[in-house]
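Morning - nicotinamide-adenine-dinucleotide inputs below, output right after.
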Amino acid sequence: MAGRLAGKTVLVTAAGQGIGRAAVLAMAAEGAEVIATDINDRALAELAAGGIATRHLNVRDAAAILALAAEFPATNVLFNCAGLPGGGTILDCSDEDWSFGLDVNLGSMFRMCRAFLPGMIALGGGSVINMASVAGPVTGAQAQFGFCATKAGVVGLTRSVAADFAGRGIRCNAVCPGIVASPSHEARLKAGGDFASALAAQEAAQPMGRAARPEEVAQLVVWLASDESSYTTGTTQIIDGGWSNL
Ligand SMILES: NC(=O)c1ccc[n+]([C@@H]2O[C@H](COP(=O)([O-])OP(=O)(O)OC[C@H]3O[C@@H](n4cnc5c(N)ncnc54)[C@H](O)[C@@H]3O)[C@@H](O)[C@H]2O)c1
């Protein structure tokens, strides 16, 4: 079934690779007008070569976010995908690490939602999709302190926006993946020195024996962007191959 997002304008952050890129391609395939944003201009150029509209956007830049919201006031769907890992325990986390992680993972969602919600309200509704994780919002995870803390904050922000704007046609949901085989995930495993062993150990800990593909998470994003999810708001959508429940 194609055309599930026909007539919708969608804006995606961190669209250059991984889940963001997969979501851009999946939503465009369903007929959406997609604006893909990232700080990686080379990755954006590849998307542009495939006919996707692109804009350079650093989600830490409040002025640039406001300018983008003014450029695309008729945005129906906002996919806030930007987020970075924060490794180590609380004892490893410096003040600078804490501020940086909070700003990228949670501050970005605050700035993006605040900038784009007025346009959605004027349109009579919209769908905001915020990238969280099972690590933090659903379950604990060792040596991911900054990541867990900020992603739990994403769920609080999501519920708050959902509660405040449900009566104005705006839905807001969080996506909570387990492990996703994205470029940064691969880089993290390689950084340990023995990629094959690290991958095997991680896969062995998964009920399905593997990580998710970005395209699998993208299909959940398509559904949340579409009118098929019209009665779904304020939720944390777990997509982790059973990791946190089994
Ligand atoms: N990969 C996983 O296992 C996993 C699991 C749970 C949640 N997530 C979340 O999914 C999202 C995407 O992760 P991924 O692993 O698919 O992608 P990734 O980490 O491979 O790519 C991240 C993208 O973000 C961009 N980026 C970095 N800083 C930015 C900034 N300041 N402004 C705009 N863009 C910026 C990068 O250029 C890159 O294109 C993140 O929020 C991440 O926390 C990932």
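Note: The beta strands are 9-12, 33-38, 53-56, 77-80, 126-131, 170-177, 236-239.

O.
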